[in-house]
Amino acid sequence: MIKKLLFATGLLLASLSATGSVMAESRIKDIASLQAGRDNQLIGYGLIVGLQGTGDGLRSSPFTEQSMRAMLQNLGISTQGGQSGSKNTAAVMVTANLPPFASPGSRLDVTVSSLGDSTSLRGGTLIMTSLTGADGQIYAVAQGSVVVSGFSAQGQAASVTEGVTTTGRVPNGAIIERELPSKFKDSVNLVLQLRNPDFSTAVRIADTVNNFASQRYGGPIAESRDSQEVIVQKPKMADLARLMAEIENLVVETDTPAKVVVNERTGTIVIGADVKVSRVAVSYGTLTVQVTETPQIVQPQPFSNGVTAVQPQTDISVMKAGSNVAILNGPDLRSLVAGLNSIGVKPDGIIAILQGIKSAGALQAELVIQ
To answer: Mind listing the pLDDT tens digit for each residue in 293-318?
Structure first.
């Protein structure tokens, strides 16, 4: 399967490698994000009610009972008396991401995750839960019906479970109550952060913005600070929101370092377009030893005093295949893929070959093993 995949990749990139390395063009908004426009994480602790007997056991999850008593007391209901045996309530952690420039009154999705021994959150309702940020301030309040994608069914002798039933979402379940203290218009400059840090790409972003600014504002305004950040100074007469709208649609040629990503668990191999291999000779051979036990029952002779015995019999076979020597010389992706295809080994063999080539210093790329 991997052989066909690599061969198809070689055909796909044949036209690219024939003319040398071709760089991709992308808009600035697709390769960089605004530092002032990042998300903020929110967290809260709440209760889900209305479960069909799949909630927390109050003995094994005492914090659920404490939360129930505190909630009922806040509602003016006395909770003095015996312990409740209901399993229709579950304690959950509620998480959400507060989007940038969010205004009070807008809604966002929240995720609920069980804290106790609840078996399913399906059919439950999250009651009012406050969501706080890292500064301890309440920024949103969540409440609503929980949507669970997984399900579980159980009988006396069998059970079926698909997906995760102890985690769910509340679509548009949180209402933003407080806006972030910082304002976008209060910034004196724009800080663009590259999603894939690279010095070449950062410099090209700064050059592209300066070429635009020279025609629009009469001078350069951008400077690449390092491989990840590009600083754009706000012109005196420019509007910051309009400036960002103009910059984010500029097209830039992106560049990435040569990498080979290998996942040994799934046998996935991803080779970048700029990966090159120096001329090396590779021999890959697999030695298979098969041991088969076929014990035989030996019966005694008639009218003898012998007993039935088991006579062991072991068959050992040794097979060795794939010992051909192939020469790899990959000045471009097409040649590298064709060389790997000529060896004709399985994905685990290709992974071993790439590791050996890297150890020999012939792989001109970073080898990332997951």
So the answer is: 677 887 777 777 777 887 777 676 65
What six digits make up the tokens of 173? 């379940």
Q: What is the largest CA-CA distance in the chain?
A: 116
Torsion angle of alpha carbons 295, 301, 306, 308, nearest 10°?
30
Among 4-13, 62-71, 290-299, 310-319, name the one with the lowest average pLDDT.
Answer: 4-13
**List of domains in the chain:** 1-22+256-370 (no CATH), 40-176 (no CATH), 183-253 (3.30.70.3400)
Between CA 41 and CA 289 the distance in angstroms is 55
Q: Considering Cα of 15, then 19, then 20, then 25, what sign does the dihedral take?
A: negative
Residue (of 184, 171, 194) closest to 102 by Cα position? 184
Gap between the Cα atoms of 126 and 89, Å rounded:
10
Q: Are strands 259-263 and 366-369 parallel, antiparallel or unpaired?
A: parallel
Residues in the chain, overall count? 370
CB-CB contact of 47 with 63 (8 Å):
no
Q: What is the pLDDT of residues 165-174, one digit of tens each?
A: 889 999 999 9
Query: Taking the CB of residue 255, how many other CB atoms lie within 10 A of it?
Result: 17
166: tokens are 């102890």
Question: At 329, phi and psi to the nearest 5?
Answer: -145, 95
HSE value, Cβ hemisphere, 13 Å, CA-based, for 321: 8
Instruction: State how far the Cα of 294 lies from the Cα of 37, in Å rounded to an integer.
Output: 70
User: From CA 213, how far away is CA 180, in angstroms rounded?
Assistant: 30
Residue 29 CB neighbour total at 10 angstroms: 15
Report the predicted TM-score, pTM, of the whole model to 2 decimal places: 0.65
